[in-house]
Amino acid sequence: MDTNENKKDKVFNVIVLAGELLLSNGAEIFRVEDTMERIAKAYGLDIDTFVIANGIFVTAQGNKSLHQFKIKHIPTGTTNLEKIELVNQISRQIEQKTYNVDKALDKLLELKNKKMYPSKVQIAAYGLGSSFCYFLGGSVTDSIVSLFLGIILGITMTLFMKSYVTKAIQNIMGSAIVTILAISAYNLGLGDNIDKMIIGSIIPLVPGVAFTNAVRDFIENDYISGAVRMLDSVLVAFSIAIGVGVIWSIMR
């Protein structure tokens, strides 16, 4: 393979990898397609893209015939805004001719292999998010109880993720556990509003960003992707409702 063809292969890999990172971390469909096309234009490669919520289809045109074609399945995952922003930064550097193909590929591979926030940070974030029940009308005591319940929820969800439990079961079990603990705490005289404590505790599970992105996909006429993401958000909400509802019915 000559040098020019080798460079085209690397450019194609950069384009696909950038799209994969964006989509797997919860970016909107129009952002994924726009970024891929911008990178291709910066490197002088003619491509056609078709992106849906869990897949990427890319073709790259050669001088006389089809150069490359790739289908990439992207499982629906969690939203990581940090990685989305870092991919956007890399694409901007590519447009400004700061990164050549090799450096861009190295940066994207480094980002792909970058680990998420440490478990301690994620657990602390669960607790902080749960303490926001104060803004939902809960008392200071409710917020303190919700903070600790959120930490317990974070530990529980971290353990579930390591054991590869399905998302639906994670949300059902997580919401059920914090509901049991919230009712138990209330019965022990901790907290003033049982409903506020439960709502505050399950806030970290609510798929707000995913739902917003689904709406944005609909607005951008990406109906297939919007429907997939909307359905995923509804299933998460339904799982949370099952976990809370079953325990509430039993313990009330």
UniProtKB/TrEMBL annotation:
<protein>
    <submittedName>
        <fullName>Threonine/serine exporter family protein</fullName>
    </submittedName>
</protein>
<keyword id="KW-0812">Transmembrane</keyword>
<dbReference type="GO" id="GO:0022857">
    <property type="term" value="F:transmembrane transporter activity"/>
</dbReference>
<comment type="similarity">
    <text>Belongs to the ThrE exporter (TC 2.A.79) family.</text>
</comment>
<feature type="domain" description="Threonine/serine exporter-like N-terminal">
    <location>
        <begin position="14"/>
        <end position="250"/>
    </location>
</feature>
<feature type="transmembrane region" description="Helical">
    <location>
        <begin position="198"/>
        <end position="219"/>
    </location>
</feature>
<feature type="transmembrane region" description="Helical">
    <location>
        <begin position="231"/>
        <end position="251"/>
    </location>
</feature>
<dbReference type="GO" id="GO:0015744">
    <property type="term" value="P:succinate transport"/>
</dbReference>
<keyword id="KW-1133">Transmembrane helix</keyword>
<keyword id="KW-0472">Membrane</keyword>
<dbReference type="GO" id="GO:0005886">
    <property type="term" value="C:plasma membrane"/>
</dbReference>
<dbReference type="Pfam" id="PF06738">
    <property type="entry name" value="ThrE"/>
</dbReference>
<keyword id="KW-1003">Cell membrane</keyword>
<dbReference type="InterPro" id="IPR050539">
    <property type="entry name" value="ThrE_Dicarb/AminoAcid_Exp"/>
</dbReference>
<feature type="transmembrane region" description="Helical">
    <location>
        <begin position="168"/>
        <end position="186"/>
    </location>
</feature>
<dbReference type="InterPro" id="IPR010619">
    <property type="entry name" value="ThrE-like_N"/>
</dbReference>
